Amino acid sequence: MMQLRLGLTFAIAAMGLVGCSSFNNHSLDYKNTTTLAPLQFPTDATVRPFTPLYPAPTVDQLAIEHAPKLENKQGTRFALPRPDSTKANTVATSADSTVAMGRPQVVVDGNKNPLLQINGSTSDIWQYTIATLTSLNYKVLGENKAGHEATIKVGDQSYVLKLTGVGNTHNLALFNPDNSFADPAKATELLNQIYQNWPA
User: Fold this and answer.
1) Whole-structure pTM value
2) What letters, b where the CB count within 10 A reaches 16 and e where it falls short, cover 19-35?
3) Of 87, 102, 118, 169, which sits with the fewest C-beta atoms within 10 Å of its C-beta?
4) In terms of CATH architecture, what is 105-196?
5) pLDDT tens per residue, range 87-137
């Protein structure tokens, strides 16, 4: 009788362990969320103005489509990817080995000026920037390749697009001809277009 109880206990424990590893733990349920309509108050009700404590950010559809899949092979639960295996004895073949270029990211500096942040080699990033401007049909009025600056025409106005960087991290920013930052709305619109049409 004692052996039967012990065997039954082990069987239940084993089933529990198998169940924990194979069943859906609902960690991917967030993908099936829907947008709810804002709260509606009766017309005769007196309420304080509603301001969200944590406003939801607006995420670009292109970013959602290119987001990494953080789930297991079965697609049943959230899982971080395993790190790539690296060789212990890797050495650089040359001092000027190429740096892999990353996807650009739209960021904002401390003064609320939009920037496009890109990792990679300066010359490659600048080449891609000019190619993207050409594909967007922006007229390049002048280009300083050494300083990585281009004067472009947007509508009826001229702006200066500048690439600056430290190490492999670079920022692309839009300036007025007088070297002041361009209007944030105009700069955000242009940098978003460059981001969405980046050829890499």
Assistant:
1) 0.49
2) eeeeeeeeebeeeeeee
3) 87
4) 2-Layer Sandwich (3.30)
5) 544 444 343 345 677 788 888 888 888 998 988 888 888 888 888 888 888
